[in-house]
Amino acid sequence: MENPDCECAIASKQFQKKLKIPPVLRKKAVKLDENQYWRIQFCCGPKCQCSSECSLKGLDEIDKDHNKKFEVYREEEKMGFCVSTKKYIAKGTPVMSFNGEIVGKRALEKGSDAEQYSLKLIDQDQALIEFLKTANFLAKNLLRPLATAFDRVVFINPLKYGNVGRFLSHSCRPNLEMMRIFQGGVSPGHMRIVFIANCNIKAGENLSFDYG
Q1: pLDDT at 157
Q2: Cα 46 from chain centroid?
Q3: What 3-state DSSP class applies to 180?
């Protein structure tokens, strides 16, 4: 890490220690396992004062140059859109995030189409709640509000505001895995769903994950 005393570095170390999770580092393969969705990590955000070379900026590339990296296409009119990669992707690479509006379950149920396209961001994560209650990198007056914020069910709805991630295909043998990563803070607004390559992916291959 470029600056081991910065708030991001301190937060990342505590996530690793308390939640037993390896860090997501710049230009390093992410280690995956079958419980990846629940293994939350922390990365530097765009407002971090460290340079672009900081090892904790593991998500710096996922929002850049999507037109150069991916192709959105539709093979048949009756089928949905798909996404293929224009470039080789190595196993363990953060590929893209799933962007959209952060909404509660009640708001999601109002739109019939929204629920089937949305992904769950927060699901009353008790391990995370207990961790945040004792995290010494946070101001004490933030602990209770944050614990309350994560003791609920929250989704990312991509219908009105989203990115190429909303066109990813479903597969029972996917080449992407979902991981939740805090970027630059620990509020629900700082948490992102990120797709990580679980194998080497050749240029031209369709990108997919397991909706289940």
Answers
A1: 92
A2: 15
A3: strand
Question: In this structure, which amino acid lies at residue 158?
Answer: P
Q: By three-state DSSP, how is residue 197 classified?
A: strand
DSSP 78-135: TS--EEEESS-B-TT-EEEEE--EEEEHHHHHTSTTHHHH-EEEEE--HHHHHHHHH-
Q: State the chain's mean pLDDT as an integer.
A: 87
Domains along the sequence of the chain with CATH: 7-209 (2.170.270.10)
Amino acid at 26: R
Are the C-beta atoms of residues 66 and 99 closer than 8 Å to each other? no
User: Is residue 209's pLDDT more than 90?
Assistant: yes
The string of DSSP letters for 30-96 reads PP--TTGGG--EEE--TT-SS-TT-TT-TTTTTTS-HHHHEEEE-SSTTS--EEEESS-B-TT-EEE
Measured from the Cβ of residue 104, the count of other Cβ atoms closer than 10 Å reads 12
Residue 3: other Cβ atoms inside 10 A: 15
Answer yes or no: is pLDDT of 2 > 60. no
- Are 21 and 179 within 8 A, CB to CB? no
